[in-house]
Write a structure and sequence with these properties.
Layout: H1 3-16, E1 24-27, H2 40-50, H3 52-62, H4 66-81, H5 83-89, E2 91-93, E3 96-98, H6 111-117, E4 122-128, E5 139-145, E6 148-155, H7 164-174, E7 190-194, E8 199-202, E9 213-214, H8 232-237, H9 240-249, E10 252-262, E11 267-277, H10 281-297, E12 302-307, H11 313-325, E13 340-345, H12 352-361, E14 368-370, H13 375-384, E15 388-392, H14 393-398, H15 400-403, E16 411-416, H16 418-421, H17 425-433, H18 450-461, E17 467-473, H19 478-484, E18 486-487, E19 493-494, E20 497-499, H20 501-506, E21 517-528, E22 536-538, H21 539-551, H22 554-570, H23 575-578, E23 581-586, H24 589-605, E24 611-615, E25 619-622, E26 625-628, H25 629-635, H26 644-649, E27 653-658, E28 671-677, H27 682-689, E29 703-706, H28 711-718, E30 725-727, H29 735-744, H30 751-762, H31 772-783, H32 788-811, H33 817-832, E31 847-860, E32 869-871, E33 887-889, H34 890-901, H35 907-922, H36 924-931, H37 936-952, H38 959-965, H39 971-988
Parallel strand pairs: 1-4, 6-7, 12-17, 12-20, 13-15, 13-16, 14-15, 16-17, 21-29, 23-27, 23-28, 24-27, 28-29, 30-32
Antiparallel strand pairs: 2-3, 4-5, 5-6, 7-8, 8-9, 10-11, 18-19, 19-30, 21-31, 22-33, 25-26
Domain Helicase ATP-binding: 294-494
GO molecular function, one term: DNA binding
Organism: Emticicia aquatilis
Length: 989
């Protein structure tokens, strides 16, 4: 089986299969003009056939030179503007306009347009000799549209001993685009490399720097009966209708803008790079699958697209939005399926990349309207009927009342990161804002009853037949799967389309954040300062406070910062050609302040040429001083007008400390290492660690150092999203009736009071005063319940009911007016119930940290299983009552905590360490060096050397102790801890 036979096989298929009235024909490579880079005869034939009057006008202008002038104008325009722009907009000269391609008409109501479409001529040229420099050089196959080359294919046959890697080498080292017009950027849409099993592609040849991207159906292509694994390429992607669809709707010329630090300018500057985006296989597949499914479904359906980081989501959303604006149910329809397409992002600042993509795809000016000012701007856009509106979820909710008046309109709503935008009350408000007001009332003869209004509210919360939702996320929660997913025959919910984390990793679009995972553990012992004053306290709360005390203790923070900086200085800072950054994820805003202050202090002591930044929302008071991220960063040298993302690109700031803020949605490819001092779980865990997975030049791996999470918990969080995610079943709505029964068994209100409350609620009223008596009576009865745990059980029940009802109302057309009334009443009652008593207990004056050890457990690769992820459906949540909390004496609680957290600290070790410290602190030689005119680094080095000499004395009598304290992970910490204690003691004398 030779390469030639592989060519023949593909050519034979292309020229023998008709597709919508079009098919390829074979053209000899001798027809190709190397100067003009076209097939001259086919260009002229197409224009004469499809536009005879325009060609006659051209001949009037140019006479005998008509053909030559036309071909030269075409070649010049392609050279200047690129082939995609010329194909979409044509060429013009001296008032004559000529089209170079005709796209498939959206409807069959215009026969003339259909006839022009059938004039398109697709050709396949084998062994096209493109080079004037070297006549022997040829491309195996080139596909042309109306004589214009658009797609190149280089074939390799494994049966002759070559595969796709040989094609890559050929393009990199034997296809230099310099001085070769056809190979230059934007002259062709795409270059495919193909062997029997694998496809790759690039839209830009760049010599040795050419980057080929995978173009397979999955990580590997499935076996095809009686054909090649890669046969989908010529059967699906390269069919005439597919190629014309790609040219018309998908290929995108864009400019990528990256921010980089410029040493000469001394600031962050924008670097622009021109790109030609050819749709990846999964992007083309999802848009075409949606296009067909929507035509079958009509409006009113939900579609979940589970596309992970690295999927090119902004482009997919852009292509979908423009597809929806020109979608008809069938070829005879005059009305589009969707009047308006709304693209929603949950970020307060509109996604600039998304806006840019949408605008670059629009072929008619004014199609896309970005709502970036206020709700009035959004109202105007909807009134005008803009095809595509881009807005944020925050602005969308403001105009709910106005939107409900838009009757008879159809909407396609595309949501970026669906789980964060489309759960809870926000989703219901969004649906209500698009409501058709389906219940009509004869206003002249009847007064609208509150029950009618109630039913309308219920309907507005459920699925709306005029609104289709398209949700994009890589990490769907169980709620998201049930709301947006599709039920399979087994009763499970799944995404409409998936591009998995596993595939993104395999194809090299993202990095594996679990590949280098190092865990640390801290052990400690506490002591009670005054055992005479031994208070009896609630055990659970005190245990929590004791652990919080340790994790906020200056010594704990100091040791963790020491470990962080040791790792960063000796390893991280060398990564990404010396540009690597790190993120420190801490548990609270207070810890942001504690870590930042300690890190700045240690960085100065080490004389590092860089410092750190901090990011958190709002302000936090610490030691009598109010702190914000701005005040801390400004004091540390960040200019007021520089954002934190820009600041992190500055070589003077290389570590970012965060709490919640920047844990999601922050894309900085230079972040190589993450230090985690916060419990992470579920979607938050995946999204936080995924801050590391962005690729950039020179970045080959990532690193995580985790102080608190167990590796098993991290794997548990990631596993559901590694391949595709299933919801194992659906939420049982009958749980609402169970909760309803339990809530009413407390007898805090009657059915009459509930009905009267709702009548007032749904009536036109100026204020909420009339609602108060009903709520106040229920609150009084709640306060009369003697047992505290019973009161808290009731609070828990109403929270569970409101949460579950709010959720179920989103996923099904739920029309029980009694449950809706209860929901409305309880939603306000829970706000009126007195808040729980404060749970914090201040024990800081009663305890002290006796000993502390933070030890490296080890580094490992966390491996995910290659299986479908599963999530369980939502339950009502809550608890049946807290019960009476056990109490114990503080001394006993401390003892229990020490048993858990101090298990690896031996008293014998501490005695030996104390002895070593006493000898060193009393040594005249040590004092001389410490009090002398020596640098901090030299003092520290001397201290460590002296300590090692003393440890050496234990090698014969107590080898276990020697082995422990001299280990590579413990010795630096012990030396530093002793050294810092010596310094503090010297300063207080």
């Amino acid at each position: 089986m030779t390469e030639k036979r592989f060519e023949e096989h593909i050519e034979k298929y292309l020229i023998s299969h008709e597709d919508g009235g079009l098919k390829y024909h074979a053209t000899n490579h001798n027809q190709y003009n190397k100067d003009l880079c076209v097939l001259p005869t086919e260009v002229i034939d197409f224009i004469k056939t499809s536009q005879p009057k325009a060609y006659e006008n051209w001949q009037v202008q140019f006479g005998e030179d008509s053909e030559e002038k036309l071909l030269k104008r075409l070649a010049i325009d392609i050279q200047k503007r690129g082939v995609i722009d010329v194909l979409r907009t044509g060429i013009r000269e001296r008032g004559v306009y000529l089209d170079l391609v005709y796209f498939e008409p959206k409807s069959s109501l215009n026969p003339e347009h259909q006839a022009k479409y059938l004039c398109n001529k697709l050709s396949v040229v084998r062994q096209l000799h493109y080079s004037k420099q070297n006549p022997k050089k040829s491309i195996d196959m080139v596909l042309c549209i109306n004589g214009i080359p658009i797609i190149g294919i280089e074939l390799k046959n494994q049966l002759t001993g070559q595969d796709i890697s040989d094609a890559i080498k050929q393009f990199k080292f034997d296809r230099d685009p310099k001085n070769e017009p056809l190979l230059q950027f934007k002259r062709m849409l795409v270059h495919f490399i193909v062997d029997n099993d694998t496809v790759g592609m690039t839209s830009k040849l760049n010599g040795a720097d050419t980057r080929f991207l995978p173009y397979n159906k999955g990580i590997i292509n499935p076996i095809v009966e009686n054909d090649y694994k890669v046969s989908y390429l010529w059967k699906e992607i390269l069919s005439p209708s597919s190629v014309l669809d790609i040219i018309e709707n998908f290929v995108l010329e864009t400019t990528e803008i990256d921010k980089e630090w410029d040493d000469k300018a001394g600031k962050v500057v924008e670097k622009k790079k021109d790109l030609l985006i050819f749709p990846r296989y999964h992007q083309l597949e999802v848009i075409r699958k949606l296009r067909n499914q929507i035509k079958a479904d009509g409006t009113g359906q939900y579609y979940l697209i589970q596309h992970t980081t690295g999927s090119g989501k902004s482009y997919s959303i852009g292509w979908l939005a423009h597809t929806l604006t020109s979608l008809y149910k069938n070829s005879t329809d005059k009305t589009r399926i969707f009047d308006t397409v709304v693209v929603i992002t949950d970020r307060k600042v509109l996604d600039k990349q998304l806006q840019k993509t949408l605008r670059e795809l629009e072929q008619t000016a004014g199609v896309v309207k970005a709502i970036d000012k206020n709700s009035d701007q959004l109202k105007t856009a909807l009134e005008k009927g803009n095809d595509i509106i881009v807005t944020t979820i925050q602005k969308f909710g403001v105009i709910a009342d106005f939107m409900s008046k838009l009757k008879g309109r159809t909407f396609g709503v595309i949501i970026d990161e669906v789980h964060s935008s489309q759960t809870g009350e926000t989703s219901k408000k969004l649906k209500k804002s698009l409501s058709l007001n389906e219940i009509e009332v004869d206003e002249e003869n009847t007064e609208e009853d509150y029950e009618d209004i109630l039913n309308k509210e219920i309907t507005a919360r459920g699925k709306q037949k005029h609104i289709s939702f398209f949700g994009f996320t890589g990490t769907p929660k169980n709620k998201t799967l049930e709301l947006f997913g599709r039920k399979n025959p087994a009763g499970q919910f799944e995404a409409f389309h998936t591009y998995s984390m596993k595939q993104a990793l395999a194809e090299g679009y993202t990095l594996d954040v679990l590949e280098h995972y190092m865990t640390y553990k801290r052990w400690f012992k506490l002591k009670q300062e005054d055992e005479q004053d031994d208070l009896e306290l609630p055990e659970g709360k005190v245990k929590k406070e004791l652990v919080n005390y340790v994790d906020s203790h200056p010594e704990t923070i100091r040791q963790k910062v020491y470990i962080i900086l040791n790792q960063f200085v000796h390893h991280t800072q060398k990564q990404i050609m010396g540009k690597a950054r790190a993120m420190v994820v801490v548990r609270s805003r207070k810890h942001c302040v504690l870590f930042q202050q300690e890190m700045v202090k240690q960085m100065k002591a080490l004389r590092l040429p860089y410092s750190c930044l901090v990011a958190f929302s709002g302000s936090i008071k610490h030691e009598g001083e109010e702190h914000t991220e701005s005040s801390l960063n400004t004091a540390n040298g960040l200019q007021n007008n520089v954002s934190i993302p820009d600041g992190l690109k500055d070589p003077r700031f290389r570590i970012l400390i965060v709490s919640n803020k920047f844990q999601t949605g922050f894309d900085e490819p230079l972040i190589h290492t993450m230090f985690v001092d916060k419990l992470l779980g579920g979607v938050q865990c995946v999204q936080t660690l995924s801050r590391l997975n962005r690729k950039t030049s020179g970045k080959t791996d990532t690193f995580v150092l985790d102080f608190v999470n167990e590796p098993e918990a991290i794997l548990e969080a990631f596993q559901p999203y590694y391949t595709s995610t299933l919801l194992t079943g659906e939420t049982d709505p009958h749980k609402l009736y169970d909760l309803d029964t339990e809530i009413k068994s407390f007898h805090l209100f009657t059915k009459y009071e509930l009905d009267e409350f709702c009548k007032v609620f749904y009536s036109e009223r100026e204020g909420d005063g009339a609602l108060q008596p009903y709520l106040n009576r229920a609150v009084e009865k709640w306060q009369e319940i003697e047992e505290e745990d019973k009161r808290e059980e009731y609070r828990s029940l109403i929270n569970s009911y409101c949460r579950l009802y709010s959720y179920i109302a989103q996923i099904m057309n739920f029309t029980d007016a009694e449950l809706e009334k209860l929901y409305i009443f309880l939603k306000y009652l829970k706000k009126k119930l007195p808040k729980r008593k404060g749970s914090s207990i201040d024990i800081t004056d009663s305890i002290d940290l006796d000993s502390l050890r933070i030890q490296k457990i080890g580094e490992q690769k966390l491996s995910l299983e290659d299986k479908q992820g599963e999530l369980d459906p939502m339950t009502e949540g809550g608890t049946k009552g807290t019960g009476e909390e056990e109490t114990d004496y503080l001394s006993e609680i401390i003892k229990k905590v020490n048993e858990i957290h101090g298990i690896h600290l031996k008293d014998e070790d501490r005695i030996h360490l104390n002895n070593v410290y006493l000898r060193m602190s009393q040594s005249a030689e040590v004092k001389k060096v410490m009090e002398g005119d020596n640098s901090e680094a030299n003092k520290k080095q001397f201290w460590t050397e002296m300590m090692s000499k003393m440890f050496l004395e234990y090698i014969n009598d107590n080898f276990d102790f020697y082995k422990t304290v001299e280990s590579a992970d413990k010795k630096p910490i012990i030396a530093d801890m002793m050294y810092q204690h010596f310094k503090r003691s010297s300063q207080t004398k």
